[in-house]
Write a structure and sequence with these properties.
- The chain is about 45% helix and about 10% strand.
- The longest helix has 19 residues.
- It is of the alpha/beta class.
- The radius of gyration is 25 Å and the shape is globular.
Length: about 550
């Protein structure tokens, strides 16, 4: 069996015997309606889009709540559209990887088409014309994005314009190549078609993502006004939420690159053509838990997301989105990831799921979440923080199919400790809570500083993951010796006082002394990290 429209009809019984659920609607009719009156287009044809949004569209269609599918737009690597979309007739085999080691399989046909575009590029003229036509169609309701946070940036770290963004501003919409330039050009087409309403919806995992998307698009549009490529009324259109909105969203779902075990299981069941190509394949493997919270601001209407039961999609205000993100980032998921990654690296782990078999690390994360975090958690009301935390601890982190590495999570920790730990600290200060309740949190911060010494708990050299402040912080700790507590002479105090790292000066809280005390104990030589956890988390 191969993943094609012909096969899922001709070999339907074989697919079912392989444990694969087939689409429950007329795929041809949906695709014809999509071509006639497109409602939803998407930039970023990667795994989270295919497995999450693709399933959302599929299940809306199956319930009779949506008549069209999503049109996926490729702007960078044409091989994705050609070898993943076209080769499989725009079908996706969605494999949910359950915590008990089993999988659930479903063929998704909610994505109606995959189109490669390139403004001014004759090789992609046909696809570009089709997408321009879609943007000029009154039926279009929303354009969504999963392009990663970096795609929204048009400036370099020093504030200067990126070369491609500068070129787009100079050369105009007809040949725009930067992702944000392409989006601005297509929105200009929609504006010219009659100032048609649209929701421009980032679904990338970054705070206030709609604002980031809007800021870059508007900056390019303003440059085009200055150059005479557009009028001020185009900028006015982009900044008028009643016709062109940029809602906030919060997304949470892990869709790792194709897992070898999943590929082998599909092959063993007679499913061919699933060989991974880099980070993609005919199948998407993903954890089952998923959450998408969307600010309900759609000037031209939207799919009835609220009628999907059990899909993890919620609608609310911008405040709701913000609160849900804070719940996740500051309490229920991200702090647990960072704390366990520090000690996981010190203990030599390479998989998060293996860490969840370590009783000391489990005690660390459970105390951090349940005992220290939940008392000050931001409650978005639409999702129970405790239920979310239960799912993280009991299902997500232990999932053997999730090949996440603590060394990856340890990347850029200096930029993460502020939101992941600093907000809880601020809450304890603001609410005058007892700082003696904080044990796992200072253990996590002390563990991070010990990790920066680049020696594991056995005394072996250890690679420290990339971090924008790595060299600066390691220089401050240069005189600290991993197995000599007497080498500590207050070197971490300036780090703890750095408000740009933690969001506040920790030396003005009772926490600094505790972090210092833990750090000194972590300098006790081989096994000191293990001994510290066992002593403090009894």
């Amino acid at each position: 069996m191969r993943l094609t429209l012909e096969s899922i009809v001709k070999d339907a019984e074989d697919w079912k015997r392989a444990g694969v659920k087939l689409p429950g609607f007329d795929i041809k009719a949906v695709r014809e309606e999509t071509a006639r009156a497109p409602e939803w287009v998407h930039f970023g044809p990667g795994n989270i889009f295919r497995g999450f949004l693709g399933s959302v569209a599929q299940h809306l269609i199956e319930k009779g709540l949506l008549k069209t599918g999503i049109v996926a737009i490729g702007t960078r690597n044409p091989a994705v559209i050609e070898n993943i979309y076209k080769a499989n007739d725009c079908l996706t085999l969605n494999v949910l990887m359950n915590p008990d080691g089993t999988t659930s399989r479903e063929i998704l046909a909610g994505i109606a088409d995959g189109v490669q575009i390139g403004l001014g590029n004759p090789d992609f003229a046909e696809g570009t014309a089709r997408i321009v036509s879609a943007f000029r169609s009154p039926s279009l309701k929303l354009v969504t994005f999963t392009v990663t946070e970096k795609a929204y940036k048009i400036t370099n770290p020093d504030g200067s314009l990126q070369d491609q963004a500068a070129a787009d501003m100079e050369n105009g919409p007809s040949v725009a190549k930067h992702s944000m330039g392409v989006v601005a050009a297509l929105l200009l087409e929609r504006f010219k078609a009659g100032r048609l309403p649209i929701a421009v919806v980032s679904m990338d995992n970054c705070s206030h993502n709609g604002d980031k998307l809007k800021a870059s698009v508007v900056a390019i549009a303003k440059a085009w006004v200055d150059k005479g490529f557009a009028g001020q009324d185009f900028v006015d259109y982009l900044e008028d939420r009643s016709v062109c909105s940029f809602p906030w969203t919060m997304i949470d779902k892990i869709t790792p690159r194709p897992h070898q075990k999943v590929y082998e299981s599909l092959k063993a069941d007679g499913i061919e053509g699933m060989e991974p190509e880099g980070t993609a394949a005919g199948f998407v493997n993903a954890e089952k838990p998923q959450t998408l919270v969307i600010e309900d601001c759609f000037p031209n209407g939207r799919p009835p997301f609220e009628k999907l039961d059990g899909e993890g999609v919620y609608l609310g205000t911008a405040e709701t989105v913000d609160m849900t993100e804070k719940m996740k980032v500051t309490t229920c998921l991200n702090p647990l990831h960072t704390s366990m990654s520090m000690y996981g690296c010190l203990f030599g782990y390479t998989l998060i799921c293996d860490e969840m078999k370590d009783a000391d690390i489990v005690k660390l994360v459970k105390r951090l979440g349940y005992v220290e975090g939940l008392p000050v958690v931001v409650d978005p009301k639409i999702i129970s923080p405790k239920a979310f935390l239960d799912e993280v601890v009991e299902k997500r982190l232990p999932n053997p199919f999730m090949p996440d590495d603590p060394r990856r999570i340890a990347t850029d920790t200096s930029a993460k400790v502020g939101p992941r730990f600093g907000e809880t600290i601020k809450s304890y200060v603001r609410e005058k809570k007892d700082f003696s309740n904080l044990v796992s949190l200072p253990l996590a911060i002390a563990g991070w500083l010990r990790y920066l010494l680049a020696v594991n708990d056995r005394g072996e050299p250890m690679q420290v993951s990339d971090d924008p402040l790595r060299e600066e912080l390691q220089a401050k700790l240069a005189d600290v010796v991993w197995n000599d507590p007497k080498s500590y002479k207050g070197q971490i105090r300036p780090i703890l006082a750095n408000e740009s790292i933690f969001g506040s000066d920790l030396t003005k809280t009772p926490l600094a002394d505790r972090i210092e005390g833990y750090f000194v104990r972590l300098l006790g030589g081989p096994g000191s990290a293990r001994a510290l956890l066992q002593s403090e988390l009894r």
